[in-house]
Amino acid sequence: MLGDLREGWAEFVKHTWLWATVIQYCLIMMAWNGAFMVLGPVVAKAHLGGAAAWGAISAADALGLIFGGLVSLRYTPRRPMLFVVGTGGIFALSPLMLGLVAPLPLICLVAFCIGIVAEVMMVQWTVAMATRIPADKLARVSSYDGFGSLAAMPLGALVAGPLAVSIGVPATQFAAAAVIVVASVCTLIPREIWTIRSDDVVTGGAGAALGFEAGGPPELVVPGGPAGAIASAQAGADRG
User: Fold this and answer.
1) pTM
2) CB of 225 within 8 A of CB of 25?
3) Which of 43, 154, 160, 219 has its CA 20 to 30 A from that of 237?
4) Model pLDDT for residues 33-43, shown as the tens digit of each residue
5) What distance in Å separates the CA atoms of residue 38 and residue 33, rounded to the nearest whole number?
6) How far is 1 from 170, CA to CA, in rounded Å?
7) What is the pLDDT of residues 20-65, one digit of tens each?
8) Please, what's the largest Cα pairwise distance for the chain?
């Protein structure tokens, strides 16, 4: 088992686009989970109309995910990793809108739009993993990917309440938005984020082993990492 872990780690750190994006989403999901999932209902109760308002926001988000799935059937970004990183930055709009106590229709519209781009991002991420990671290492790399992206989410939930008591709910949400933006901007530094293209043919990837190119079907790999983290958090929002 330790040998498998070492081999998976060696493959994981070999791909700059992979570990850089996982670090980005680790920070994003930490900030977003605390500012949106924990403090969002607080703002809804105090300023937007309570449970009905939070239900509307969650429904808008879920509808965006459904529509994003339909968009993904026809749309493939030319530079998928740039799209994935950019989508992470867009998540800053959620705590920003809540921190500003924007009108409920505007918050719902933002949630709907984020749901769309998040779903497209999930597809692009799973396809990138399936087509760029060797088939015999995909499961181990996906494990590091999923662990890294989800690891800090409990920390975000844990500190959101005490931090909001200390500096206020709006300030906490603005700080979370800042963390998301800074993490996303820093992830634009690696060259691979800009150069990977959707029409690249990768030799040795799991998708290639099955005869698919980079535009292959997302069913090749179970969502993990950023995709899994977003899916998990979005499901939590829907249950809320």
Assistant:
1) 0.84
2) yes
3) 219
4) 999 999 999 99
5) 7
6) 46
7) 999 999 999 999 999 999 999 999 999 999 999 999 999 999 999 9
8) 55
